[in-house]
Design goal:
mainly beta; Pnp Oxidase, Chain A
Length: 200
């Protein structure tokens, strides 16, 4: 029997994304967020949710651009720092030794040392309550060659992204490979004329 835990943000896991933006003076800023995900296939879009009190909220509202830098097991300490310090008072690039790179596609910086990044143009803003959701169209994905498969796509096991446990406040690496998506479920019997359906 399941125990009720109440209305909490206890859906595991969430991503550890470091969001890049520029402030009004053109200073590069980064902030770690955990409320985000892919939200559309065509056009390719992702969403991030921020509190209005954050400096990054101001920056994205002004520039209408941002980058998402995927935190990995190797840089989780820097990612954690970027989620606890404020860009209003600290230059987080200088503090962490990370390198800002100006995007050629959007008005936002990305992090040179992070192996997988998304460059996004702000499409829509939705006020949800404490958090505001920014929906960004993905204009490009950039990846280090070291985390790519032979097919040219990112390899999750090479990337080793970090994930976050909301409420309990813990970071984790990903577990073992379980099998190919849209394939392993075909072991369950179904009518012969029914084809597997994708849920996205």
């Amino acid at each position: 029997m399941k125990k009720s835990l109440g209305a909490k943000t206890l859906v595991f896991p969430t991503p550890v994304w470091v969001v890049g933006s520029y402030d009004q003076e053109g200073k590069p800023n980064i902030m770690t967020i955990a409320w985000g995900g892919i939200c559309c296939s065509k056009p390719p879009c992702l969403n991030i949710s921020l509190r209005k009190a954050t400096y990054t909220y101001e920056c994205i509202t002004m520039s209408r651009s941002f980058t998402v830098n995927v935190a990995t097991e190797n840089n989780i300490i820097m990612a954690d720092y970027c989620g606890t310090a404020s860009g209003r008072t600290v230059n987080k690039f200088a503090a962490t030794g990370l390198t800002p790179v100006r995007s050629e596609l959007v008005d936002a910086p990305y992090i040179e040392e992070f192996p997988l990044i998304a460059e996004c143009r702000l499409l829509q803003t939705v006020d949800l309550g404490l958090h505001t959701m920014f929906i960004g169209e993905i204009l490009d994905i950039k990846a280090d060659a070291a985390v790519l498969m032979e097919e040219g796509l990112p390899d999750v096991e090479k990337l080793r992204p970090a994930v976050f446990g909301p409420v309990v406040r813990t970071y984790h690496g990903l577990g073992e490979y379980l099998g190919p998506a849209f394939t392993i479920g075909q072991e369950i019997e179904r009518p012969k004329d029914e084809l597997p359906k994708r849920e996205h």
